[in-house]
Design a protein that fits this description.
about 90 residues; alpha+beta; four-stranded mixed beta sheet; 3 helices; about 20% strand; globular
Length: about 90
């Protein structure tokens, strides 16, 4: 199985995004963090609304498929990647 391409649109102080980062790291999944500055209202801008029309953070993109809401993202990760990474 090839490594999926994962992008996490997040804000470092978002507790919802933090939950998703924890899940990704526990599963050992490599991802690219794409910062969305909530203090600058980037989530309301045209560029981010093209990614998530609701303007919510976090949003995850796995091989082009986008999912919003941290609990839905974590549920998706658990279903798609059921086994955590093996511990060395």
């Amino acid at each position: 199985m090839t490594q999926p391409i994962i992008r996490l649109y997040d804000y470092w102080r978002s507790s919802a995004a933090y939950r998703v980062r924890i899940a990704l790291n526990l599963k050992g999944l490599a991802y690219t963090s794409v910062p969305v500055n909530l203090l600058a209202s980037e989530q309301s801008g045209e560029a981010y609304r093209a990614i998530d029309p609701q303007g919510l953070v976090p949003t995850i993109e796995v091989n082009g498929r986008r999912i919003v809401q941290s609990l839905a993202i974590i549920d998706y990760l658990d279903r798609r990647f059921p086994d955590p990474a093996a511990q060395a």
